[in-house]
Amino acid sequence: MSLSTQATPSPDMFRPPINRAMRDLDRSFFKKKLEIAAACVLDRTKISAYQKKLSQDILRLERLPPVRSVPPHLGLEKTARCLLLKPEIRHGGENESSWSPQLQELKNTHQVVVIPYQLELNYDYWNYHDIMSAILPDSEQAEIPVGFSAVGHVAHLNLRDQYLPYKHLIASVLMDKNPTIRTVINKTDDVGEENEFRTFRYEVLAGPDDMHVEVKEQDCVFRFDYSKVYWNTRLSTEHHRLVSKFQPGEAVCDVMAGVGPFAVPAAKKGVWVWANDLNPDSYSSLVENARRNKVSDFIRPFCSDGRTFIQTATSQCLLSSNSPKQHHSPFPTTTGKKPAGSRPPRSNPPPPTPSSEPKTFSHFILNLPATATSFLPAFIGLYAGHEALFAPGTDGGANKLPMVHVYCFSTKSDDNRAETAKIRREIGERLGFETGDEEMKLEVWDVRDVAPQKRMFCASFRLPREVAFRTTTTASTG
To answer: How far apart are the C-alpha atoms of 282 and 258, rounded to whole Å?
Structure first.
C-alpha cells in the first residue's frame, strides 16, 4: 500500500484481505473493520488547531481523511468531530501511556474525549496496486502490471504472458481505479506486424469495443479511430520538442504525418505544413483534425507513398510559390467591447499578419522509426537545378537548405556513443556523404526507451549542398 511520508507504523492492518484464488472480480470481498481509537473534539471550530497540536497522534494514510463524524450511538452533539488516531494509541485509562503529552493535556482539560472507533474500509478505499497485490499469486508479485498507455478513454495494455490468466481481473480493477478509462485493451501483436500502417491487433478486456477517441495535446484536439491509425501518447514530449524548432512563416514537410501530432500544432503557430500519410484513415483524420483546430488554411494534406512525396511536394512547393497565397496567422485576436465584469486579458495577442508560402521547405519530418532511414535516398538531387535559390544573398540570405529530422530505432547503452556512431554511418551510406562534415551539423537525440534493449532516436541534420544538388546518384538507394 502506498503511504504518505507521515504514515503510521504497522500498515499491514490497513491492507486488503487476500484471495489468491479469485478469477472473477468480487468487489464485495474487499471489506475490513478495524478497531482503533479517535479523539472526539466537542467544539468543531477547533479541529484545525487540534490537528496541528496532535500531529504525532493522528492517523495519516493516503486517501483516508482523518476527520470523521462522531458515531451516533455515543449520543454526543452533532457538531462534534472525531480525529482518527494511530493504531498504537488505545482508548481507556490503562492505555494512556501510549498517548502523547498533548493528547493527555487535551483529555485532562476536557477538550477532547478519546473513544473507541470502528473504521470500515472497502473496495473503494484501496488502489489498483493494493487490490492486485491481494489477488495475484505470490510468484507474480515482483512485477505487478502497472503501466499502460491512456489514449483518450482507452487504456492500452501490453501484458506479459504470465499475467494473461489474470487479464480480465487486471482490466476490471484498472478501469475501476481510473475514472477516465472506459475501455481496456491488450495488444496481441507487435505494432506494424499486421500491416504497414503501424496498427495492431488487440482484444477488449473490459468495457465496450469503442476505439473512437479524443486526445488533447499541445492545446490541440485530435479525434481518430485508434484501431485504424497510429498514435503514441508517450511521444507527446517529442512532438512538443520538435514543433518548438519551427518558426511562423516556415514551410515544413511532414512525410509520415499520421493524424497530425506534428502538423496541427505547427500550423497553429503559423507554420505552413505539407502533411502526408499512406494510411487513408490517418489521412481522413488529419483533414478532420486540421478543420477541428481551425488550421486547414495552413495544412496541405496528402495520401501517397513517402518516397515519392518528398520529391513531388518539393517540386509543387517551388511551383505553388509562383502565385503565392496569403493567409492570416491562426492566432485569435480580441475585438469589440468586453462584456461587463469580464477580466482584462493578461496581454493583447498580436494582430494577424499576412504570410506567403515560401518556395522551399525549412524542415522535413520522417517519423517512421522502423524504416525512415530507407527514405533518405529521396533527398539526393532534391534541389538540383535550383542552386540559385540557396546562393548567398538570395532573398536576403534567408534561404537555407532544409533540416531533416529522421527517426530510427537502435540498441541501448549508458552514453549512446555506439548507437550515435551507427546511426551516423547508416545516414551517410544512404546519402553517399560523410556525416562528419561540418556543414551537416548532425545531432542524434535520445527520444525514449521502447524495450529493454531498444531505444528510439531522432537524427537531425541540415541537408548538405553536395547531396541536395547532386545530379547523379552515388549513394545506395536501399
So the answer is: 5
Q: Mind listing the pLDDT tens digit for each residue in 19-64?
A: 999 999 999 999 999 999 999 998 888 999 999 999 999 999 999 9
**407 close to 458: Cβ distance less than 8 angstroms:** yes
Supply 386's cell numbers.
535550383
At 292 the three-state DSSP class reads: helix
Residue 85 DSSP code: B
What cell does 447 get? 527520444
pTM, entire model = 0.82
Q: Which amino acid is at 365?
A: I
Question: Cβ neighbours of residue 420 under 8 Å, at least 6 residues apart?
Answer: 444
Residues with Cβ within 8 Å of 346's Cβ and at least 6 positions away in sequence, in order, are none
Residue type, 277: D
Alpha carbon distances (Å) from 430 to 69, 361, 378: 72, 21, 9
Query: How far is CA 314 from each of CA 25, 49, 406, rounded to the nearest angstrom?
Result: 57, 71, 17
What is the helix (H) or strand (E) element at residue 183, kind and residue range?
strand 183-187
H or E segment to which residue 428 belongs: helix 417-431
